[in-house]
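Customer escalation, tier 2.

The customer says the design service returned an amino acid string that "doesn't look like it belongs to this structure." They asked us to rerun it and document both sides in this ticket. The original structure tokens are below, unchanged.
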């Protein structure tokens, strides 16, 4: 379940930092009852960015395979594996 907090709770930075560290999920911050921002730990953010890169490369490889460019797909997969130690 998503964690939602009002913007006034950001004053307690130690508690916010602890919440971010304890969860891999983002924390949604509201202002006057409406979504204002999202915060998360650096570790969770980096993991999400890594996974986004993996998904983009896999999509490119699948597109290459559909287009009959298997050599390009193999190259993209090889690059992905090398970059992320897979």
């Amino acid at each position: 379940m998503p964690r939602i907090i009002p913007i006034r709770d950001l004053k307690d930075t130690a508690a916010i930092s602890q919440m971010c560290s304890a969860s891999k999920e983002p924390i949604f911050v509201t202002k006057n009852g409406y979504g204002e921002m999202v915060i998360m730990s650096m570790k969770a953010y980096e993991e999400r960015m890594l996974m986004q890169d993996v998904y983009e490369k896999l999509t490119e490889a699948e597109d290459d395979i559909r287009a009959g460019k298997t050599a390009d797909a193999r190259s993209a997969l090889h690059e992905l594996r090398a970059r992320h130690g897979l």
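Tier 2 assessment: The sequence is consistent with the input. DSSP finds three helices and three strands in the chain. The chain has a mean pLDDT of 87. Sent an explanation to the customer and offered a walkthrough call.
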